[in-house]
Design brief:
Layout: E1 2-6, E2 15-19, E3 22-25, H1 37-40, E4 56-57, E5 66-67, H2 70-88, E6 93-97, H3 103-117, E7 122-124, H4 131-141, E8 159-163, H5 167-170, H6 175-183, E9 187-191, H7 197-201, E10 204-206, H8 213-226, H9 232-238, E11 239-240, H10 242-248, H11 254-261, H12 265-277, E12 281-285, H13 287-290, H14 295-308, E13 319-322, H15 329-334, E14 341-342, E15 346-347, H16 351-361, H17 375-380, E16 388-392, H18 396-399, H19 403-411, E17 415-420, H20 425-428, E18 432-435, E19 444-447, E20 453-456, H21 469-479, H22 490-501, H23 513-517, E21 549-550, E22 569-574, H24 590-595, E23 600-603, H25 605-611, E24 618-622, E25 627-634, E26 642-646, E27 672-678, H26 685-688
Parallel strand pairs: 6-7, 6-16, 8-9, 8-12, 9-10, 11-21, 12-13, 16-17, 17-18, 22-26, 23-25
Antiparallel strand pairs: 1-2, 2-3, 4-5, 4-18, 14-15, 19-20, 22-27, 24-25, 24-27
This protein binds iron/sulfur cluster.
Residues 7, 9-10, 12-14, 31, 35-36, 38-39, 171-173 line the site of iron/sulfur cluster.
Length: 691
């Protein structure tokens, strides 16, 4: 029997048909039947020999993991939670989730942390993905929805500027909307230190130095003001704060911007004139601009430019948007999986929000914990204030910045519990591993990059011995004497989520499974069942107290860690076309593993020549945190001063910086200083005594 559901991977959430374990593309408004290689091979994991089908546990630290019964595993976890909390308080136990969890699971895990564990320590790996854009868009527009318009609107833009975004590799089916635009003459401009597949297709490629996107946006705004391109009526009628931003970019002269970013003045001028004179224009950012210690300010700078040109809410084909990464990165941050949030995008610090959600949960508001700490700070606290960690659908031993340090912290826990369906690098470190269902074995909903709510549908039963996270959290809650608060039925959980979100910013009250199953296209907010949903935001007003978007002045400071004599190049990381996130799934998919078995470092031919390296040679990359040896991929698609490594393999993130954005707490994944050497080269002294 064929079941209509969605791909388990990225935020495009392509529609797929699942028949047995075969996955094929189906007609859906975003992918129109197309799939990338990852989605097309997703069925390979459903009955993979590495699939976990029984709980595992180790008798003591250092012992091997061995099979145990579900009761034994759950009893052990519950006993450790009770013992730890009795001795150290509720915050000594933490939860860490993933952006691939369904809305129902994201909601339930946040509730489990606050109601069953009463801990303030809960966060998720979506913090590493979207938090800078979320913070900036909330501040500017009063709402955080990746695309405030349906994806096909991209085809209607006459000019589209993509900043640090490479959909041609990361979500190929989305490129059809860019292609439709180009076929009717649209101009696409890509800002990226690499000539990516997306940049190669674009009309213009601005090869900016990593970490200079904010300077670029401010420099473009300076030219827009100088050349009289600002939409003064829009600024007057729909925004606040313009005067301060106008002052803030006064010194971002074109030649100064050229020196900072490496983009020629003529290209700066052509770019901003194209955006300003187009009837319909949009600016799209993604992780390349956002994963920095000034990521929130960088996104704010691009929003300032979009507002000055009058783009958000102008109509179809215009606006600002950010392209979400993970499958349910959007939904995860709406339903209480972040340390400071309650369902409906409510704030845990807001007494009225606490009262509303507590009433839905059937608990007293003052029993809800205070806001906790962000993802990296939580991982950094493991083995200190946090003694027990419940880790679900995430693999921070590979995906967190400064990963060697995070791995050490995971090892310092009294008890690490991992729920997953394969033995990821993090699961291998666990004291207890609980095997879970996969995408085709469960019902639920996800929210894609457009804010469109989708139905995930069960196509086949999971292998014997596997349980869903909803069953696991209910079983644990029962042992903690709060089981009555936790349903195992996804529809029941979702209906509770709708009530909890009602009246909030991310209002799902009107989006029922029945409406979705009847084929309605529903985008939040949707406050009641008669409401058609909100595919396009900002057309008349912004959801801020005064209905206006807010300009916020920001200034370029640059990457925290800059090249110097010891670490003379810039390291940047990202996704490859073949793998996904930490690679725990795609590195186990035979076709994908064969296509791209190992990590590599992209080096410009000039750098390769200087190092005496040819394509395929081993090179050692060393940063202030660690070193790895990978193969060189020599290519002129990258700047000579920059090195790119895809992050899907263990140890790559040993290199990256955990410096955090002060607002979003996003780590600075995208830029740090690196030393590069052929492995046969003399080992410099500092490599034996790293700083
Ligand atoms: Fe899956 Fe994303 Fe590929 Fe679509 S683009 S098939 S959602 S990984």
């Amino acid at each position: 029997m064929v079941t209509a559901t969605h791909c388990p991977y990225c935020s495009l959430q392509c529609g797929v048909d699942v028949d047995g374990i075969a996955v094929s593309g189906r007609e859906f408004p975003t992918n129109r039947g197309g799939l990338c290689r990852k989605g097309a091979t997703a069925g390979a994991l459903l009955r993979h020999p590495d699939r976990l089908t029984t709980p595992l546990a180790r008798d003591h630290k250092g012992a091997a993991l061995g099979p145990v019964s579900w009761d034994e595993a759950l009893d052990r976890v519950a006993a450790a939670i009770l013992r730890t909390q009795a001795e150290h308080g509720p915050d000594a136990v933490a939860c860490f989730g993933g952006g691939g969890l369904t809305n129902e699971k994201a909601y339930q895990l946040g509730k489990f942390a606050r109601v069953a564990l009463r801990t303030r320590h809960v966060d998720y790996n979506g913090r590493f993905c979207m938090s800078s854009a979320a913070a900036a868009t909330n501040r500017a527009f009063g709402i955080d929805r990746g695309l405030p318009f349906p994806l096909p609107d991209i085809a209607e833009a006459d000019v589209a500027l993509l900043v640090g975004s490479n959909p041609a590799d990361t979500m190929p089916p989305a490129m059809r909307w860019f292609e439709v635009g180009r076929e009717r003459g649209a101009q696409h401009i890509v800002v990226d230190p690499r000539r990516t597949a997306t940049a190669a297709l674009a009309h213009r490629h601005l090869r900016a130095l990593p970490g200079t996107d904010l300077a670029l946006a401010n420099g473009l705004l300076h030219i827009a003001i100088r050349d009289g391109l600002v939409d003064e009526a829009y600024v007057r009628d729909r925004t606040t704060g313009w005067a301060a931003v106008r002052r803030a970019v006064r010194a971002d002269w074109p030649d100064r911007t050229e020196r900072t970013t490496g983009i020629a003045v003529a290209d700066l001028e052509r770019t901003v004139h194209a955006l300003a004179t187009a009837e319909r224009a949009m600016i799209l950012t993604a992780r390349g601009a956002e994963q920095h210690a000034d990521g929130t300010a960088t996104v704010t700078a691009w929003i300032n430019l979009a507002l000055a040109l009058g783009l958000p809410g102008r109509g179809i084909g215009s606006g600002y948007a950010t392209i979400t990464g993970q499958g349910n990165g959007q939904g995860g941050r709406e339903h209480g999986l972040k340390a400071d949030q309650l369902p409906g995008y409510r704030s845990l610090a807001d007494p009225a929000a606490r009262a509303h959600v507590a009433a839905v949960w059937g608990v007293a508001p003052d029993t809800l914990p205070a806001p906790g700490i962000s993802a990296y700070e939580l991982l950094d606290a493991l083995g200190g204030a946090v003694k027990v960690l419940l880790l679900g659908a995430s693999n921070p031993a590979v995906s967190a910045p400064n990963a060697a340090h995070v791995t050490e912290r995971l090892g310092a826990l009294d008890l690490l519990v991992v729920t997953d369906f394969v033995l990821s690098e993090s699961a291998r470190m666990a004291d207890v591993v609980l095997p879970t269902t996969q995408f085709a074995e469960e019902d639920g909903t996800l929210t894609n990059l457009e804010g469109r709510v989708l139905r995930r549908r069960k196509a086949l039963d999971p292998p014997a011995g596997v349980r869903s996270e909803l069953e696991i959290w209910h079983a644990l809650a029962s042992r903690l004497r709060t089981g009555e608060h936790f349903s195992v039925d996804a529809r029941t959980v979702y209906d509770e989520l709708r009530r909890a979100s009602a009246g909030g910013t991310a209002d799902y009250a009107g989006i029922s499974w029945d409406r979705l199953d009847a084929g309605e296209e529903l985008f939040w907010p949707c406050p009641d069942e008669a409401h058609p949903g909100s595919p396009r935001l900002f057309l008349d007003t912004f959801p801020t107290p005064d209905g206006r978007a807010r300009f916020v002045p920001v200034s370029h400071r640059g990457a925290v860690e800059r090249p110097d004599g010891r670490f003379p190049y810039v390291l940047t990381t990202g996704r490859s076309r073949t793998h996904y996130q930490s690679g725990a799934q795609t590195r186990r998919t035979p076709e994908l593993a064969a296509a791209e078995p190992d990590p590599y470092a992209e080096l410009h031919p000039d750098l390769a020549t200087a190092l005496g390296v040819v394509d395929g040679d081993a090179v050692r990359l060393t940063t202030r945190r660690g070193r790895v040896v990978v193969r060189a991929r020599v290519t002129d698609t990258i700047r000579p001063d920059t090195v790119f490594v895809p992050f899907h393999w263990p140890r790559v993130n040993d290199l990256t910086s955990p410096r955090l954005d002060p607002t979003s707490r996003m780590p600075e994944f995208k830029s740090c200083a690196v030393h590069v050497a052929a492995v046969s080269a003399r080992v410099p002294e500092y490599e034996e005594q790293p700083a």
